[in-house]
Amino acid sequence: MTEDTTGGLVTTAEGDVRGDLRVVLVGGSTADPSHTRALLAAAVQAVEREGAEPVVWDIGRHPLPPMGTDRRAGADLCRSVDDAAAVVVVTPLYHGSYSGLVKNALDYLEEGHLRGRPVGLMSTTGRAPSAQAVDHLRVVVGEMGGMVVPGQVIATARDFTRVGTELELTDPKLGHGVGELVGELLWVAERLGGVGRSERAGLGGRAADRPESAARPVSGAQSEAVNRAVAYIRAHYREGTLTLDEVAQHVRMSRYHFSRTFRAQTGRRFMDFVAMLRLSDARVLLADTDQPVVDVCLAVGYKDLSNFERTFKRWFKVSPSRYRAACSRGRERRAPVPR
């Protein structure tokens, strides 16, 4: 795992310059070797490939003292998050939720530290994929005002290989998923200005991903039927009439079996997956076009404006209009100064 703390400008192979974007990555496990640490290392490498600056908090090897014993111990973490454009949290699944180490680290952060900041979530889960830890973290980070992007990475033990005394993420699909999540996170950060707390407009809730990358929650083990279902959903979600029964029939599964299988292998319920796709489109249209909100609503597959606004606000904790305004403020902050 490498960490660039020089603050120097980094340029990716594609020519994107993101040296002014700092990403704080918090996670780890006391296990040695650790799948969670290996996933954290893969996330750091993805941040570096995108040309942003990673700031790593391996709370497995360097745990913070229990919250309440010495609050000053978390001051550096708070300052790091304040200065970051985005945050990544990596946790093992532990007793059906996220780990106590992650809980303790989040306890050091007050609500203002995450408010309006995009946050990406990743989890390791043992033998079988499970979204429980990520789902619980979405609630907590959302309550703290963080913008939890809907893309996620859920890794299992078989996605890693032991190399010497350490573990490495070697599954190519998971590696691609980590890169997509980091790309999604930085895309949101750039739309919001890519700045720290001192310059950020107050905007809470969740953000959806751009359509070309987000609609692929990663579990590492999707069957052919689920892959066909995902392809069918992606082709038809804008039509506004898509139902679970229709997709189940398309892949020749019963409604009940398809519903359970889809969630087990993607980490999402069918209705949440469809909403994510639609809100992915909506986010891009709101950020990058001047289309009226009602036109955006119809374009992404919603028939009713009030339902669209309700769903948008439930995911993002902010109305479509406020989201568009925040993106506009971000573009203004990043605009070159006239000479």
Can you give a write-up of this model?
- The chain is an alpha/beta fold.
- Helix content is 46%, strand content 13%.
- The strands form two sheets. Strands 2-1-3-4-5 form a five-stranded parallel β-sheet, sandwiched between helices. The protein has a two-stranded antiparallel ribbon with strand order 6-7.
- Helix 1 (35-49) packs across helix 6 and helix 11 (270-288) crosses helix 12.
- It starts with 21 loop residues before the first strand and ends in a 5-residue tail after the last helix.
- The model is unreliable at 1-17, 197-221 and 332-339 (pLDDT under 50).
Descriptive terms for the model:
339 residues; two-stranded antiparallel ribbon; single chain; alpha/beta
Strand content: 5-15%
Q: Give the strand line-up of the largest sheet.
A: 2-1-3-4-5
Distance between the termini: 41 Å
Number of helices: 14
Principal-axis shape: globular
How would you classify the helix and strand content by structural class? alpha/beta
The percentage helix is: 40-55%
Question: Would you list the SSEs in sequence order as H and E?
Answer: EHEHEHHEHEEEHHHHHHHHH
DSSP, total strands: 7
Major sheet: size, sense and barrel closure? 5 strands, parallel
Overall pLDDT metric: 80
Radius of gyration: 20 Å
Low-confidence stretches: 1-17, 197-221, 332-339
Itemize the secondary structure elements and their pairings.
Layout: E1 22-27, H1 35-49, E2 53-58, H2 75-82, E3 86-92, H3 100-107, H4 111-114, E4 118-124, H5 132-143, E5 147-155, E6 160-163, E7 166-169, H6 172-191, H7 211-214, H8 224-236, H9 244-250, H10 255-266, H11 270-288, H12 293-299, H13 305-316, H14 320-334
Parallel strand pairs: 1-2, 1-3, 3-4, 4-5
Antiparallel strand pairs: 6-7
Helix pairs in contact: 1-6, 11-12
